[in-house]
Amino acid sequence: MDFSALRNLISRYCAGEENWVDSRTVYIGHKEPPPGAEAYIPQRFPDNRIVSSKYTFWNFVPKNLFEQFRRIANFYFLIIFLVQLIIDTPTSPITSGLPLFFVITVTAIKQGYEDWLRHKADNSINQCPVHIIQHGKVVRKQSRKLRVGDVVRVKEDETFPCDLILLSSSRDDGTCFVTTASLDGESSHKTYYAVQDTKAFNTEEEVDTLHATIECEQPQPDLYKFVGRINIYLDRDEPIARPLGSENLLLRGATLKNTECIYAVAIYTGMETKMALNYQSKSQKRSAVEKSMNAYLIVYLCILISKALINTVLKYVWQADPNRDEPWYNEKTETERQRHILIRAFTDFLAFMVLFNYIIPVSMYVTVEMQKFLGSYFITWDDEMFDEELGEGALVNTSDLNEELGQVEYVFTDKTGTLTENNMEFIECCVDGHVYVPHAICNGQIMPGAASMDMIDSSPGPGGREHEELFFRALCLCHTVQVKEEETVDGIKRGIHQGKATSVYISSSPDEVALVEGMKRLGFTYLRLKDSHMEIQNRDDEIERFELLEVLNFDSVRRRMSVIVKSSTGEYYLFCKGADSAVFPRVISGKVEQVRARVEHNAVEGLRTLCVAYKKLSPAEYEEVCHQLSSAKLALQDREKKLAEAYDSIERDFILLGATAVEDRLQDKAADTIESLHKAGMKVWVLTGDKMETAAATCYASKLFRRNTQILELTTKRTEEQNLHDVLFDLSRTVLRQHGSMTRETLSGLSNEYHDYGLIIDGATLSAVLKPSQEGSGGNYKEIFLEICRNCSAVLCCRMAPLQKAQIVKLIKASKEHPITLAIGDGANDVSMILEAHVGIGIMGKEGRQAARNSDYAIPKFKHLKKMLLVHGHYYYIRISELVQYFFYKNVCFIFPQFLYQFFCGFSQQPLYDTAYLTLYNISFTSLPILLYSLMEQHINMDILKRDPSLYRDIAKNSLLRWPIFIYWTFLGVFDAVVFFFGAFFLFDNTTFTSNGQLMTTNTQMMFGNWTFGTLVFTVLVFTVTLKLALDTHYWTWINHFVIWGSLLFYIIFSLLWGGIIWPFLNYQRMYYVFMQMLSSGPAWLSIILLVVVSLLPDVVKKVLCRALWPTTTERIQRRKANMNFERVVTFSHDSLLDGVQSTSQA
Amino acid sequence: MMASSYSAKEEDGHHPGASGAGGAAANGRKPDNTAFKQQRLPAWQPILTAGTVLPAFFAIGLIFIPIGIGLYVTSNNIKEFEIDYTGTDTSSPCFSCYQNFSWNSTLPCKCSLPFSLDQPFESNVFMYYGLSNFYQNHRRYVKSRDDSHLNGNLYSLTHPSKECEPYAHRDNVPVAPCGAIANSMFNDTMELFFVHPNETRSQIPLKRKGIAWWTDKHVKFRNPGGNGDNLTAAFQGTTYPVNWHKPVYELDADPENNGFINEDFIVWMRTAALPTFRKLYRIIEKKSSMTPTLPSGNYTLEVTYNYPVHSFDGRKRMILSTISWMGGKNPFLGIAYITVGSVCFFLGVVLLLIHHKYGNRSSSPDIAS
After folding, report:
1. DSSP 8-state assignment for residue A600
2. Annotated binding-site residue? A414
3. In the UniProt record, does the keyword Isomerase occur (chain B) (predicted)?
4. A580 near A691, Cβ under 8 Å?
5. What is the 8-class DSSP label of residue A468?
6. Residues 6 or more apart in contact with residue A706 via CB below 8 angstroms
């Protein structure tokens, strides 16, 4: 990446300064333009090599190491390791080097393997053949040798090797069809167009004669934006300039469909293609747990440093007496003596640091990473989140945020496609106030209340009839739907056999499909677009043809689209359809009032409404329009803006025809899910681009607003009446008063039934609220708004632009409580908020895969969010919080005895434990039980979690990682460490702690040394921390049993082995037979049992007392369940003996 | 012990719509339906409540208190006698040795300490020497040894490890055994005499073998060149440590207890855990079942005072002790067991009260939120 950017930079400089900073010129076929045109300046562009790999063979080791040691934890361990290597430290460098080496190697292997896969993928892409036209012939080349300006031939089902401008296609109209499934996941076919003047060049020879240059902008990552201009030199005349837009640009990665072959010219190659520019990884999101973990780490680092400092100071105080510093039996070497005192003190400090450095374990990072990585498989495996229809389950794109799912406080959801199915069904249309309902629906369903409405099938008079037909035609013409005939079977098109019925409409917008299909049911069938003529079959089975002149595409700012067509009678029509707010202001005549009433009625019903309007254009007007459009399209700079202006001036003075209503059904269990989220204490916000009434209706349907919800409106309508300032203060007063009285009520315990608030705000008002105003009071608006929102259980934001969605999320994120936010959406317009929120969830919807690709987690349906948060999020949170706390606890237990030992060994940094124990404690003796715990633990059954969402509140606000709990764990660790150390101390001190293998023969009375002392402490330690985890485990599967008892067994076996052999490669044999001798001593056994019991006792007592006196909801439920099960078992054993085995196992 | 619920959940009856349309299920991404992947493995779900922990507490109390009493009684039955012979006190017979110690003196300083045992020591008696304020666990000291050297490796014998510095070479001749631990080996000799009522003294036989770990003596410590008789030759080219008076191959006359496998040496080489420690010196074996090993009466301890502790304020002691099945005298373990047992019992009672008072409340179903 870096290299290509550099290369790009260099190439720009080489090209000369006057040669564009922001645009480039491409010579098609590398042919010089005729003289008179601009001078031919060959520019240098990168070749078509795609480099997605990070490393090369040569730089892998240094670069990878550099990247790994940029992580602060790895760097810390590296420093410790280096200190151990350089100075004389108590523990061998192996103890920290080996784990570090292990971690680094595993990571390097993983990254290396991934990079190797990328290399392979790159190679296969870079070497795949492409066909290039040279001198009128087709030449095969490797893809990476493709250069900018080459003319490429692509056949059907081939993918484009780089970004191309379509010159001509085998289809007569110069179009081709493309799927961009691998780019953005949208599998629908999209049409791309060749410039009219080049579409005739559709053989190799002809293409070779084409003389043209393309000027276009420098590559930029936006997939849907492109501006350029093609200059065609037909004769010696002035070149013909034609605009190029994204409809001419074929993107690398897309696939050619339904088109035999095309010719196109390469304009962006290699790393400059839009696909490559979009490779940029997403910004790293960090979870709240990780932040707490880092805070704890800092605390422990301080503890570590202060421990080392205390010991260093005490050491020198103690050593002030030379007979202590250097008694006759323990002299220093000459070099040690000559060292300066400061150097010695510093070395001692470092040595203490090394001795105690295990308090911050490498393995914690590894375990946390593994827990996250492996744990996320449970999400993908989850059968309940598998969608039969889609054939897909949940997807995990980042496993870093698993536990964050259990901490969500704000849920921002999109409406269309997320709460609703995005499966549109045409319900009715209204022409001049007369309502039409397609028969299919009318017959299929009983429509209560509909009978009273004016359901008119008969003609409402000649004038009406004309309008009606115009309305239907408008809907048949004003869209971008494509007709796809069914796949050919055995060479025969089935579509022909069975009439037109089997042809399928495809569009990127499901509304359009619903409308066109609705029209079909009302008698007007859109057949196809052929030779830029749209064919429709009217009620009398006649085929009408309209020439499609211009399409003014839909965009989310204008919220409408238009087409200009020429009827067979030669009249020019402009048809427009769009949101009511986008159309009504531009209407000059028509039955506006009736239509508006109907639209509002439908919107309240939760239907999506569109208004249709038209205007007739005279040929002169059409010319004018054409001119405006083409000049805007030709602009190289600010084309977007100019186009918008052009559209604005064209789309006005309409005559209103009518309105349509399309139903977007709520997703399965959407209401249930929202209700659960509410109960779980989350605030749900709906952010939608839809209009207020529709959105509000959906909110009611999905139980976001309930009957007793008091709706606060903060909309343009209201702010027009009062000014924004007053409205805000009004609302906040209402809310706060309620809030105050509520707390009083709950205090007095009179009532817990308070009605909640729902807020509706629209995009315009929102931007007014957020706008930093000059008076200085503007800052307050934001605060007041947040205050209001905080007291509303549900907020609906309608009429939102995509970027505003992200703004809202950002606003809440930055508010003073810093709540955890979750954004869920399905479309490209939700991507910004998905990326902004702490957790982004994509729905694998109908609007393509963009949201799912950019999300952290992707689920098939909205209802799966419930399980995702309430079950998986909850589990992961309790799992990881226990993991983090336990890890710190067990390392306090591990290291604190070493600290205490320094007071008894003259602060000489003598380690208490053997090197093997120091190394393996975190790696193997105590690692697996906690890892498996953190993968398997279920403190409450998942069915209960789902049934009782309020349990989610138990863990809200990172409650298991608060400081008091952390301090409790740390003190527990210190207590245990003190018990281990002084327990062993009193057994050794001043008494003959002896082994007694054979009771009767007295010749085995031996003394134990310091290594036995350490081994005793270590044995107690391993047993205690493992049993502590066993006490915390609430869900004992066979795996937990296996791992917990297995690691204890492993410790014993390892110790027996480690002490059982004279290890030839070691230069010390201090552990030889130490463990066996210890085990052969009765008091050792007794003291191990005693010390384990004593260290576990306080925790058990604390648990029992807390459970009895101040039970949490979780604990109550566990209790109730246990009782229920117990009762069941009892009844079983009473009733029948069938369950005999189970009940006896209970007894 | 714990209220538990074995919820062997229906392993695969829990998946709504799992087997719907067969056609859609043909898709390859459909997750498997195993209990593990669905996190529905059958599990034992114990919970710690007052009710369930109660029996455990009482059990611990009931088990620990008798054990503790047993340990305490056993420990009290062990007879132990300790005498400090450092000689710091002017009245002590060893005072002159303590005062006039010099490394160069060739004449051994001897002193004898009379003492009397009030009670007879019945079974085998173990004789220990005890040192205090002696940091055998100092890091510099602990690592100052060469295990392969001590294991009889011929190369290491003449090339002692760097860890042994500054006790590795003496005048460029390798030291055997090298290192600070070996160098500072305890070299007082003690002899015990029984003073008969008629003032005649009879020496009590002290067994000098069998005081080290069997594995240490037979595996970990080996003389160089096998266990040939000619130890003098085996240690050719080495010299003895600077604070020793004689080479390592003259530690004992018995070839089975000489050189590196001298048991006094092996015992010393096992570094003590704490700065106050005792090490086994000799064993006084019981001769017949009729007479006690050490009858009550007067004794004299004859000490050859070689080991200086003056400089670091150390103390030297001689301890005589019998042992029991649980080792030497150790009241701590018994007391600890009794204490923990009583605490558990007490907690059990407290928990019983709590269980009685709150147990029913918290388990009543109407408390549910």
Report:
1. H
2. yes
3. no
4. yes
5. H
6. A756
Q: Is the pLDDT of residue A1147 over 70?
A: no
**Residue A1118 near chain B (CB below 8 Å):** yes
Rounded CA-CA distance B240/B178 in Å is 8
Could you identify the residue written with the tokens 């696939």?
A255
Q: In angstroms, what separates the C-alpha of B16 from chain A's closest C-alpha?
A: 7
Q: CA-CA distance, A416 to A767, in Å (whole number)?
A: 22
The B residues from 82 to 111 touching A (CB cutoff 8 Å) are none
Catalytic residue among A115, A208, A414, A511: A414
**How far is the C-alpha of B328 from the C-alpha of B127, rounded, in Å?**
11
* Contact with chain B for residue A21, Cβ under 8 A: no
Q: Which two tokens stand for residue A657?
A: 């025809």
Q: What are the backbone angles phi and psi of residue B40, rounded to the nearest 5°?
A: -120, 35
- B150-180 in b/e burial notation, b at 16+ Cβ within 10 A? bbbeeebbeebbebbbbbbebeeebbbbbbb
Residue A908 contacts residue A355 (beta carbons within 8 Å): no
Query: How far does CA A18 lie from the centroid of its chain?
Result: 43
Q: How far apart are CA A917 and CA A914, in angstroms?
A: 5
Tokens of A804: 């505003």
* Contact between residue B71 and residue B333 where contact means Cβ atoms under 8 Å apart: yes
The tokens describing A678, both together, are: 């509410």
Q: For tokens 């349309």, name the residue.
A: B21
**Nearest by Cα to B130 from A991, A1070, A1078:** A991
CB contact residues (below 8 A), chain B span 269-308, against chain A: 270-280, 283, 285, 308
Please count the residues of chain B. 369
Q: How far is the CA of B112 from the CAs of B189, B203, B245, B282, B304, in angstroms? A: 11, 13, 22, 18, 9
A150-170 average pLDDT score:
87
Dump pLDDT digits (tens) for A412-421.
Answer: 998 877 888 7
Could you give the CA distance from residue A889 to residue B326 in angstroms, rounded to a whole number? 33
Q: Which of B33, B123, B340 sits opposite A1090 (nearest CB)?
A: B340
Per-residue pLDDT of chain B (369 residues; tens, 9 = 90+): 333 334 333 333 333 333 333 333 334 456 667 888 888 888 888 888 888 888 999 999 999 999 999 989 988 888 889 999 988 888 888 888 888 887 777 778 888 999 999 999 988 888 889 898 999 999 999 989 998 889 888 888 888 888 888 899 988 899 989 999 999 999 899 999 999 988 899 999 998 888 888 888 888 898 887 656 678 888 888 899 988 988 888 888 888 888 898 999 998 998 988 888 888 898 888 887 778 889 999 999 999 998 988 888 899 999 888 877 777 777 888 899 999 999 999 999 988 888 888 765 544 444 333
Chain B residue numbers touching A680 (CB-CB < 8 A): none
ipTM for the assembly: 0.90
Chain A CB within 8 Å of residue B43 CB: yes
Residues whose CB is less than 8 angstroms from the CB of residue B106 and which lie 6 or more positions away in sequence, other chains included: none
Number of Cβ within a 10 Å radius of residue B106: 6
- Alpha carbon distance A377, A121 (integer Å): 25
Task: Report how far residue A403's alpha carbon sits from residue A958's, in angstroms, rounded to the nearest whole number.
Answer: 10
Q: How near does any CA of chain A get to the CA of B323, in Å?
A: 9
Helix axes A60-69, A93-127, angle to 10 degrees: 120
Contact by Cβ (8 Å): A781, A773:
yes
B30 touches chain A (CB under 8 A): yes
Residues A1146/B4, Cβ–Cβ less than 8 Å: yes
Answer whether B151 touches A (CB < 8 Å): yes
Q: How far apart are the C-alpha atoms of A582 and A557, rounded to whole Å?
A: 9
Q: What does DSSP assign to residue A404?
A: G
Residue with tokens 């200059």: A231
Q: What is the pLDDT of residues A365-390, one digit of tens each?
A: 888 888 988 898 899 888 888 888 87
* CA–CA gap between residue B195 and residue A783 (Å, rounded): 98
Q: Give, for A198, the enclosing helix (H) or strand (E).
A: none
